Amino acid sequence: MKIIVTDEVTGEGLALLQADPRISLEIRLGLSKDALLSCIGEYDAIITRSGTAVDKALLDAATRLKIVARAGVGIDNVDVDYASAKGVIVVNAPFGNTNSAAEHTLALLLSACRHVPAANASLKAGEWKRAKFTGVELKGKTVGVIGLGKVGGRVATRLKAFECEVLACDPYISAKRAQDLGVRLVDLQELCRSCDILTLHTPLNDETRGMIGAEQLALMKDGVILLNVARGGIIDEPVLLSRLQTGKVALAAVDVWSEEPPATDILKQLIAQERLVVTPHLGANTQEAQVNVAIDVSKEILAYLDKAPLENAVNLPRFDPAVLDQMRPYFRLMAVLSEFGLQLMKGNLDRVTFGFSGAIAHQDCSPLTVCGLAALLDRATDQPVNMVNAGLVAERMGLVVDERKTTQGGAFSNLITLTLEGPWGSRIVSGTLFEGSPRIVGLRDYAMDFMPEPHMLLLSYMDRPGMIGKIGTVLGKHDINIAFMNLGRREKKGEAMVILSVDSPVPPPVVAELQAATEATFAQALHLPSA
Question: Which residue from 220, 274, 348, 408 puts its CA 20 to 30 A from 178's CA?
Answer without folding.
Answer: 220
